[in-house]
Write a structure and sequence with these properties.
By secondary structure, the protein is an all-alpha fold. The chain has helices at residues 6-25, 31-37, 42-46, 50-66, 70-83, 91-101, 105-126, 141-148, 156-178, 185-199, 209-222, 225-240, 245-267, 280-283. Helices cover 69% and strands 0% of the residues. The longest helix has 23 residues, at 156-178.
C-alpha cells in the first residue's frame, strides 16, 4: 500500500470544494463534476499539501472578489498568505480589486495588515542562499537567461525584482479602473499570477500552481477556445519545466504563448466595454463595505 499524507488528502478535498464554490458563483453547468476533477490536474497532484491548500484559499479569495465581498476576499487571502508565501503571486489582483471596489477605510486597514503580515512571512523565508538564484527551474524568462549567461545570473536578481514590481504596478493601475465583473475576473486574476510568476526571481515549477489551476477554471466558465489553449499550454509548460534545459526552454515557450493568449482579450476589452462611453448612472459603482 502507498502511504497517504492526511494533510495532502485534506488539501485536495478543500481545493475541490473551493473550485466548486467558484464555479457555482459563475453559474457554470456541471460545477460539481468539474470540481471533482480539479485535484486530478498534474500540477495540483505534484503540489498536494501546503501549496494545494494555499491554492484553495486563493480560489475562495477570488470567489469573494467576484461576489464583491472585499472583507471576505481579504479574510481568505490572509489565510492563504499564512499557509504559504506563494500566495503573494496573486497580490496585484487583490490590490486592483480593492481599488476598483472603492472599499471603506476600515477594509483598507484590514488590507494593509494582511499585506504587511504576508511580507513579514515572506522576507524571512526568502532570506536564504537559494534566494540569490534568479531562477529555480520555473519556465520563465529568467530560466532561459540563467542557462544562456550562467556567470551573470546572480546579477539579474535585482533586474528581475525591478521588472516584477514595475509590471505589478502597471497591472494595478490598469485594472483598478477597468476591473471586469463576474466570471470575466478570472482571466484578470490569471494574468496577475502569470506576470508575477514570470518576472519574479527564485521561482520554481510549482510556483505556477495558481496559474495552472485558475486557467482551466476560466476555460470551463468561458468555454472559449483561447482559454482552453492557454490552460493546456500553462499545464504543459509547468510539466516541461521539470525536465532539463531543453525541456525548460520548451516550457518557457508554452507559458509565453499562454500569457499572450490571456493578455490580449484581458487588456484590450471590446469597444462597447469602455466605461467612458457609458452614461454616468451606469458607471457608478456602489461603495463596498
Amino acid at each position: 500500500m502507498f502511504p497517504v499524507d492526511p494533510f495532502a488528502a485534506v488539501s485536495l478535498v478543500a481545493l475541490a470544494c473551493a473550485v466548486w464554490r467558484l464555479l457555482a458563483t459563475c453559474h457554470t453547468p456541471y460545477a460539481a463534476l468539474c470540481a471533482v476533477l480539479a485535484p486530478a490536474l498534474p500540477m495540483v497532484l505534484l503540489n498536494a499539501g501546503q501549496h494545494a491548500f494555499m491554492a484553495a484559499l486563493c480560489i475562495m479569495a477570488l470567489d469573494g472578489a467576484i461576489r464583491r465581498r472585499p472583507a471576505r476576499m481579504l479574510m481568505w487571502y490572509g489565510g492563504a498568505l499564512a499557509v504559504a508565501p506563494a500566495a503573494l503571486l496573486l497580490m496585484p489582483f487583490i490590490a486592483a480589486a480593492l481599488l476598483a471596489h472603492r472599499v471603506s477605510p476600515s477594509t483598507w486597514l484590514l488590507a494593509v495588515s494582511v499585506i504587511v503580515s504576508g511580507l513579514a512571512i515572506y522576507v524571512p523565508a526568502a532570506n536564504t542562499a537559494d534566494a540569490l538564484a534568479v531562477s529555480r527551474g520555473a519556465p520563465n524568462l529568467w530560466r532561459v537567461a540563467q542557462a544562456l549567461f550562467p556567470a551573470d545570473a546572480p546579477g539579474l536578481v535585482g533586474l528581475a525584482l525591478a521588472g516584477a514590481i514595475g509590471a505589478a504596478a502597471c497591472y494595478i493601475a490598469h485594472f483598478s479602473v477597468r476591473l471586469p465583473t463576474g466570471g470575466r475576473m478570472l482571466p484578470a486574476a490569471l494574468f496577475a499570477t502569470l506576470v508575477t510568476t514570470g518576472l519574479l526571481p527564485n521561482m520554481t515549477p510549482g510556483s505556477f500552481l495558481l496559474a495552472s489551476l485558475i486557467a482551466p477554471v476560466w476555460a470551463v466558465v468561458s468555454r472559449e477556445r483561447h482559454a482552453w489553449q492557454a490552460a493546456v499550454l500553462i499545464e504543459a509548460g509547468s510539466l516541461f519545466a521539470l525536465g532539463g534545459p531543453a525541456a525548460g526552454a520548451i516550457g518557457f515557450a508554452c507559458v509565453a504563448v499562454a500569457t499572450w493568449l490571456v493578455a490580449m482579450p484581458t487588456i484590450q476589452p471590446a469597444a462597447n466595454d469602455n466605461p467612458l462611453r457609458m452614461p454616468a448612472r451606469q458607471t457608478a459603482m456602489p461603495r463596498a463595505i
